[in-house]
């Protein structure tokens, strides 16, 4: 097994920079997810690690060895692509064993490894089928099987679940995580889906426009987003963001644009008297008969929770209540804000302000 390091890695297509100096340190055995909106450079970074794209600047190391100019086949990695890229004219067994055959592995050894991978993935009974005779989830598993038989130093995944329906995606998420817990192979996984990132990763790298915005465990990113971008990207429904200021004379209250006072506890000194964004996650708005009045815009019962849009302080706020709410759109609902969980961001730089 091996760790992976990116040091000031850059990539331009022609004169157009798409990766603008990326540093990531991935420990041996870690499951790291690169997440970010479409076009931010995730696949490009993964393809550079795989050796499928050359590197314009910086250094990539696998297992302590610089691989910048090493061809893909010498990097000891296995990649699972979004479209699986299975060979249609080969059976499951042949698909999984193909790379071993290319590498001239002894037949008995190849069979043993395919059998092992098929066992792990529950493909034992499907070895003689062709890809067209498999469901989407089964094809996905064959693609993973092909990677597993190679027993690589590092697994790379590029959006491997995006062709599956929602239910299967959730099931495969757990399967891949369980597989990693079993094999403990260093894994770099790309997705644009923040829920996938939150649920699967040991460590998340949030990318935006060719740069890394923040690196941390899922809950670090959720509880302490470094900036507005990460705050808005991680979490669903998304964090509410309200522009306004805190008057230094009255530091326990944030003034929304319509003059409504929203609670703040212990704001950092540099938050006073400047343009701010008040970041409030939906679950920290609580039902409270003595609280602030808001007007219900939309109400969405999900069974387990009630999602609601509430017009308050001149903004439409997403709320998530564990309770059921029987009120209707247009009616008033009173809520309290859990001030201890409010984030304050500098409106200009987007940086989160902390004590
Ligand atoms: N071969 C190429 N030539 C020129 N530009 C490219 C090339 N490949 C990618 N790009 C550009 O580089 C940027 C990053 O692309 P990349 O495929 O890495 O994004 P991504 O984060 O994987 O997005 P998605 O979530 O849509 O897959 C995009 O602006 C894309 O248009
Ligand atoms: Mg991509």
From TrEMBL:
Domain ABC transporter: 4-234
Membrane topology of this protein: Peripheral membrane protein
Keyword ATP-binding belongs to the record: yes
Keywords: ATP-binding, Cell inner membrane, Cell membrane, Membrane, Nucleotide-binding, Sugar transport, Transport
Major location category of this protein: membrane
InterPro entries for the chain: AAA+_ATPase, ABC_transporter-like_ATP-bd, ABC_transporter-like_CS, ABC_transpr_MalK-like, ABC_transpr_MalK/UgpC-like, Mo/tungstate-bd_C_term_dom, NA-bd_OB-fold, OB_MalK-like
SUPFAM superfamilies assigned: MOP-like (SSF50331), P-loop containing nucleoside triphosphate hydrolases (SSF52540)
Subcellular location: Cell inner membrane
GO molecular function annotation: ATP binding
Keyword Transport annotated: yes
Top-level taxon: Bacteria
Family: Belongs to the ABC transporter superfamily.
Protein name listed in UniProt: Multiple sugar transport system ATP-binding protein
Native source organism of the sequence: Rhizobium laguerreae
